[in-house]
Amino acid sequence: MLRRRRPEVPDVLLAPGRPRWREHLAPAVVILGGVLVVVLVGVAALVSRSGRHPENDPVAGAAAEPTLDQVPIPLPSPSLSTSPAPINAITVEQGTVPDSVDLSDEGKVDWVHWGEEGVYSLERDAGGNFAILEGTPDAPRRRHTVSPERFRWSGGTPAAGSGGATSGIRTCGAGNGFTLSAPATPQPRKLRLYLGVLNGQGLLRLKLTTGGKTVTSRLDQRGSSLRTAKYTVSYRATGPGKISIEWITEKSFDDDCGGVALEAATLF
Fold it and tell me: What residues contact residue 219 under an 8 Å CB cut-off, 6+ apart?
């Protein structure tokens, strides 16, 4: 008859006294700690490589969120620059008349001369389209040939040209004179007036039909010689209109014929 052999038990377990379980637990703790260290090192490496949290990684194929420096900053729309609206303005500059004046060269838009062929004659630019106009003549009206300057022109009508006219017209007595007009627009214009006075005081009065202030200037002379002056009038209007010119004898110093004279005008 066979006997079943009992399993052999290690001597350490059969030793008398309290069980020595701590001696077996210590190696397990060491192994578990090593595993945890390896896991933690791996996680730290992944985080360090990515530089950000996994949930912030963009999905492949999806558009990435723009950073702050990539976001366009809306700018205010540039305002349209507008030119200031033209105003009714007139400025006058008085000067000395040159010894010789070429009217056709100076008057790019129009020019006129008075008195070369008679008391009521008006020589003008044949292509000036009557831009400069004289109002209805008033009596008394006289022709003179005592201008200290000479006026030249070409391309005129009815007198085609002149090499140096000294003629003009004049009036006598306080309150008498001449009226003229020329076109006014929002674009700046210049009108040059060649005026005179003999034994009297003349009043130049300028006004735009579109509004604004009246501008005045005075010229006087005592004696038998004709005093002349050049007036350069710069003007512009708020719209289409005219500039009105009055050259009136304000005072007469001669009972016979003291008053103002009119010689030429140019528009440019």
Answer: 94, 195, 197, 201, 202, 204, 227, 229
* pLDDT tens digits, one per residue of 28-83: 555 656 656 555 656 555 555 555 544 444 444 445 555 545 555 555 555 555 66
- Domain presence at residue 118: yes
Residue 243 belongs to domain spanning: 89-267
What Rg value do the Cα atoms of the chain yield, rounded? 53
**Integer angstrom CA distances of residue 20 from 15, 26, 28:** 10, 11, 14
Task: Annotate 148-167 with three-state secondary structure.
Answer: CCEEEECCEECCCCEEEECC
Task: Judge whether 186 lies within some domain.
Answer: yes
Q: What are the backbone angles phi and psi of residue 43, rounded to the nearest 5°?
A: -65, -45
| pTM, rounded to two decimals | 0.70
- Is residue 163 in some structural domain? yes
